[in-house]
Amino acid sequence: METVWQRRVESAVKKSIRGSIFAGFNTNVDAVVHCNGDSIANLFQDPDVSLDTANALDVSQIETIREKNEFVAVLKDALGKGKSFYIILENLALLDWLDEVFSNRQELMGGQAGIIANQMAALEAKTIVYTSLLSRKQATMFFPQVLYPVFKDDLQLIPVHQAYNPDDQLKINWIFEYAKGIEFDFGGEKVVSPRANRVILATRPPGVVMGFAGEIHEHLPEFGSKIDVAFLAGYHYAPSEDPELTEYLDEVTNSIRMLKAGNPNIHLHYEYVPMKDQAAEKRVLTTISKEFHSFGINENEIRRVLDGFGYQEEYKEIVDNERAFSLYRGALRLMEQLHFSRFHVHNLGYYVLVLKKPYPVAPEVVRDCCLFGSSVNAIKAKYGGYVTKAQVSEAAEFGLSDLGLRQLKRFYEEAKQLGLDIPDNFCEEGIWDHGGCYVLVVPAHVIPNPVSTVGMGDTISSSCYASEYSSVLASR
Q1: Cα distances (Å, whole numbers) of residue 336 to 171, 267, 306, 417, 453
Q2: Is the distance from CB of 441 to CB of 325 less than 8 angstroms?
Q3: What residues make up the domain containing 419?
Q4: Does residue 327 sit in the same domain as residue 377?
Q5: pTM score, two decimals?
Q6: 130 falls within a domain
Q7: What would the mean pLDDT of 39-57 be, rounded to a whole number?
């Protein structure tokens, strides 16, 4: 079985990204901190930080960060559980404190749209980005070949480095990365990280809009005609209360329909980031899924969405026994509620996809494109930064994870035990033609002690889905 999958990887790494790729709307600067003993110890140099106070807080009830001990509690909880976590920094006055505590940081491109745009450009795709705030510093963090839409009598795509607005504010997010097996001293209490992951502390400056703003609206059909695949993210910034939420969703829906008017064959992917308000998130997902084709989410995030929609059985099953089969059941349940035709759950060592029939791309092609995406992500994990087209072939030397290959076998065995119609060659093919959908389990690469985990989900989703469309173009 391993040999069959490895041959597929050797073929997948030769893929190219074709067509025009658009990324919007969430871009920012990431201040990246690689957590170690010294960086955590620095927290307790501050007299306002108290381990007893932090330990007394219920992390599950912390929705935004307003003071220092809330941040310490969230970081300690995430490190101890090895989980990824995303939370908003509500008190922007803490930014100066973070600057002082974590002076040894690196500033990089951040935000789903920013990361995807640079990665697609690195893979030599024609890439376009749009964001409502484009400060000079933000613009310089894009690859120079990335294009940006502007209007000078007509719609033009110009290099993003030339498109910045000197009056735009900078959006900055703090990323706290940690490796597996690191021991941290939280003021006398030892915490050991069980796996590599990251905590994201995000900001929301005034003026940021997760959508199209200004004069671009009237040109959206023309803009849509220039796009083949669109990766749109940032909808987690949607307002939580009406009438603002309804107005925002109406604007989003109208904008996407205008893009489609210019290109009915445009492929739309939504990369999930959690909202603070689960009731509002439910409305956002229900509305947006009517306009999009593809949805990307990880193993932790799908639990949150299942819980938000009230699917407690599927939620609890993943919590109690996270595996490919429980993720499949969760994804299938959400697809019954939502309107996506492609649901991609990316987990450590393997991916689970559900494709609603009739799906426009053969499941075998989708599978092999996932192996391409895994290969891109493996190179990113090993070396950091953005993966060039020339680098991808090296991933053929790595080998897929034993974890992913075991999940294939476990999925097959569980389906058989339940009397389901799973084919005997499932472990070799990873494809189950089941009722109104295709179910795919694809083993992926795992790189020990990755150099970076920031943007891995974005890299996986964009590389997999963009290569799907490229395969369609190549077959014409």
Answers
A1: 36, 21, 12, 24, 31
A2: no
A3: 2-26+210-475
A4: yes
A5: 0.84
A6: no
A7: 93
